[in-house]
Amino acid sequence: MILDEVKEVYIKDLMKKGQRADGRGAMDYRPIRVEKNVFSNCEGSAIAYFGDTKVLAGVKIDVAEPFSDRPDEGIFMVNAEFTPAAHPEFEAGPPNEKSIELARVVDRGIRAANSIDVKSLVLPDGKVLGVFVDVYVLDHSGNLTDAAALAAMAALKNTRIPKYEPSAKQGAKGTFVREESAGNLAIKSDVITCSFEKIEGTNILDATDEEEIASDGRLTIAVADGQYMVASQKSGRAGFKQQELMSLFDAAVAKYGELAKYF
Amino acid sequence: MGSSANKPQLIVDGKRISGRGPMDLRNLKITAGVLKKANGSAMIEWGNNRVLAAVYGPREVFPKHTTDPRKALIHARYVMAPFSSAEEHGRSGPNRRSIEISKVAKHVFENNVLVNQFPKTMINIDMEVLQSDGGTRVAAITAASVALVDAGIPVRDLVQGVSIGKVDGMQVADLDKNEDNYGESDMPAIVSLRTGEILLYQMDGKLTRPEVDNALSMIFEGAKKVREKQVEALRAKYETDVAPQE
Fold first, then answer.
1. Cβ–Cβ under 8 Å, residues A174 and A167
2. Which among B71, B28, B75 is positioned nearest to B55, based on CA atoms?
3. Cis peptide, bond prior to residue A71, ω within 30 of zero
């Protein structure tokens, strides 16, 4: 789009002077807010707001058969929908490479940190609980990954497990009494992600959608419990040097508390 | 990052199951120009991995409306064949994992290929995993880099990589399937040794800061060995016995 090119030049010119369009420093967040338990039908939910970006995460708990190679583990899965409501360029249809990437990065962070004790999700009758997180992007003004990760974590930390009644029939799935709670989903480890966009050689945190247009590439780092790298993903054509990557890891660790307080 | 049930002991007396030391790569052989029709191609045999890479282009863009007047588009496709794993029959075509890998592979070559020299064109890079044994994405991209050079497409560097993992607490290079499945971490990366840049970086696991830094150093060390095999492959195809004219 021609407008994109105009914005790109504007953002890059500012960045050469060390400035951002909204006056923030390179490592500053926009105002952040998280609303928890926004819906009652799903077992957990949260909306994360990063400036004008709004990302919703809904958690449903289902009974499932365990995967054949993991009979002693429950199932955890993150999916992402870029709804057409969120941006003029988002189209309805099957997941595309961007929504798949976002979902998988958020999934990897939470999975690798063992946030959810999948072994605790096995039911007495040998069935398992499936924890399904669906990320819904409602308004895309940039930095969807970090907003999605924060919404997902906030939703998971406020997810109730419905009461399960095994079936009398051998081997059949039981049923949930969704109105009755069997306690909250246990979260063993807290995870946030920090995404840095590289514009004119400078890495900035919490980019807006306009800054993302001007960006050469992104590095997302998932940090668990304020110190561990549990997942990471480089996206876009930019390359990162070893030292640069390490300094961004340090920055992500330093920013951990600013996000973790919203769970 | 697999289930702890059935987890084999991966490090015995300081050695890996395969007998390798921490920094030892599996046997690696690359053959350039294995296909007739493709503009460039390469076959990589890395441990038990077998990946074929083919390059077509620069050629006319399809679909046409996506044409970029300033540069060539890179279309990268990484797919695992349904018969490629040691386990059950897989589904044919791309799944969520391979779509993600195709995306980050595309980004590697958007950096690496001199795309501005070929505006209004596209370059297709096809990576077919025929047999998998851990580390297929780095194998595929390493082969694709050779295929691009075989196609005569100008690139900034031969790019290559290796996956660094942590198994039974020890950081090791070039994970095989078992080490990947039952290890504590996996960090596949592709680098350019000429620029010192990391062009593909993914990781999952649980690593401390010194472990991340060490893994990155191991990636660059491993890449040097991989690069030698890429150069060998291209030499084998293009070097002649005829001495250059004085």
1. yes
2. B75
3. no
Q: For residue B107, give the amino acid letter.
A: H
Q: Which residue numbers in chain B have pLDDT < 70?
A: 1-5, 244-246
Residue A8 is encoded by which pair of tokens?
A: 């790109």
What's the sign of the alpha-carbon dihedral A150, A232, A78, A85?
positive
Going along chain B from its start, the domains and CATH numbers come out as 15-236 (3.30.230.70)
d(Cα B172, Cα B11) in Å, to the nearest integer?
10
Chain A residues touching residue B202 (CB < 8 angstroms): 232-234
Distance between CA atoms of residues B46 and B146, nearest Å: 14
Tokens of A233: 């993903």
Q: Is the CB of B199 less than 8 angstroms away from the CB of A101?
A: no
pLDDT at B8: 86
Which of A98, A101, A229 has the CB atom closest to B212's CB atom?
A: A229
Q: Which fold has domain A2-260?
A: Ribosomal Protein S5; domain 2 (3.30.230)
| Cα-to-chain-centroid distance, residue A164 | 28
Q: Looking at residues A9-21, what average pLDDT do you find?
A: 96
In three-state secondary structure terms, B244 is coil
pLDDT at residue A19 in the model? 97
Domain ranges of chain A: 2-260
- Cα distance between residue A49 and residue A52, in whole Å: 7
Distance, CA of B176 to CA of B136 (rounded, Å): 10
Tokens 């049923």 belong to A175
Please report the pLDDT score of residue A1 as a whole number. Answer: 65
Q: Which of A71, A72, A112 sits opposite B205 (nearest CB)?
A: A112
Contact B206 A104 (CB under 8 A): no
Q: How large is the ipTM?
A: 0.95
Q: Is A44's pLDDT higher than 90? A: yes
Q: Is B156 exposed, middle or buried (0-12, 13-18, 19+ CB in 10 A)?
A: middle
Concatenate the DSSP letters of all residues of B176-217 into one string: -HHHHHHSSEEEEEEEETTTTEEEEEEEEEEE-HHHHHHHHH
Neighbours of A173 (CB within 10 A): 16
Tell me how far apart the alpha carbons of residues B59 and B39 are, in angstroms, rounded to a whole number: 11
Q: What's at B203, amino acid-wise? A: M
What's the token pair of residue A186?
Answer: 């246990």
What is the pLDDT averaged over residues A100-107?
Answer: 98
Nearest of B178, B94, B98 to residue A104 by alpha carbon: B98
Mutate to test the interface with A, among B79, B163, B202, B217 (most CBs of A within 10 A): B202
Torsion of CA A46, A52, A53, A54, to 10 degrees: 30
Q: Among A141, A134, A140, which Cα is nearest to A155's?
A: A134
HSE-up of B68 (CA within 13 Å, CB side)? 16
B198 strand-pairing partners: A240, B191
Distance CA B106, CA B75 (A): 6
pLDDT of residue B5: 60
